[in-house]
Amino acid sequence: MQEDWQLRHHTAEESRELVGQLVDVYLDAHADDGPLYNADRYRQQLAAHMPRPGWELVTAMADGELVGYIYGFPLAADTRWWDGIQEPVAAGFTEENGRRTFAISELLVCRAWQRRGIARALHDELVKSRSEERATLLVRPDNTVARHAYASWGWGDVARLRPRWKDAPTYLVLTRPIGR
């Protein structure tokens, strides 16, 4: 129930003290997803993402414990987010200016806290605070639970993308409008 947990926004600076907890939730949520989902790689990801202008984190806390979070950042004009896109997309789709697209990088809830509406609440809280035209995220094609949730929240499939980092899987690219 909603009264069991609270949501809070954090800047990158405020989030630095939470990195260990962010990693713990990541590992819990991805416990069955294979070796790609490891602490060292995720710490590197956070270190690369947190300094980006406009980076924002929303956490869900229950009794002082981090049980879930969502974070993202606006895509800069020189973004590499779209590198590896595999399907033709509309002309201009990948053009960014730092105000057009907000990229959601992670939406995670500890397994013991799933199916309580936390992911939806985190999602809605972050998206409603953004002023960009649209949001994007990547989801594994085999993650049917997440795909169904995103579809019910207004997200649509656009293309497939395989990031250019070592051992990267292929993801579905989802987008949805968010502008105020």
Characterise the protein shown here.
With 180 residues, the protein is an alpha+beta fold. The chain has one domain (2-132): Aminopeptidase (3-Layer(aba) Sandwich), CATH 3.40.630.30. Helices cover 26% and strands 28% of the residues. It is built from 5 helices and 7 strands. The protein has helices spanning 12-15, 19-29, 39-49, 118-128, 144-152, and strands at residues 6-10, 56-62, 65-74, 101-109, 134-139, 156-161, 171-177. Helix 2 packs across helix 3. The model has no long low-confidence stretch (mean pLDDT 93).
Order of helices and strands: EHHHEEEHEHEE
Trace the largest sheet across and list its strands: 1-2-3-4-5-7-6
Which consecutive residue ranges, at least 5 long each, have pLDDT under 50? none
User: Radius of gyration in whole Å, from Cα?
Assistant: 16 Å
Number of helices: 5
**Total beta strands:** 7
Main sheet? 7 strands, mixed
Intertermini distance? 29 Å
Round the mean pLDDT to the nearest integer and report it: 93
CATH architecture term: 3-Layer(aba) Sandwich
The CATH class, by name, is: Alpha Beta
The CATH H-level superfamily is Gcn5-related N-acetyltransferase (GNAT)
CATH fold topology:
Aminopeptidase
Overall structural domain count? 1
Helix content: 25-40%
Structural category = alpha+beta
Principal-axis shape:
globular
* Percentage of residues in DSSP E strands: 25-35%
Summarize the topology.
Elements: E1 6-10, H1 12-15, H2 19-29, H3 39-49, E2 56-62, E3 65-74, E4 101-109, H4 118-128, E5 134-139, H5 144-152, E6 156-161, E7 171-177
Parallel strand pairs: 4-5
Antiparallel strand pairs: 1-2, 2-3, 3-4, 5-7, 6-7
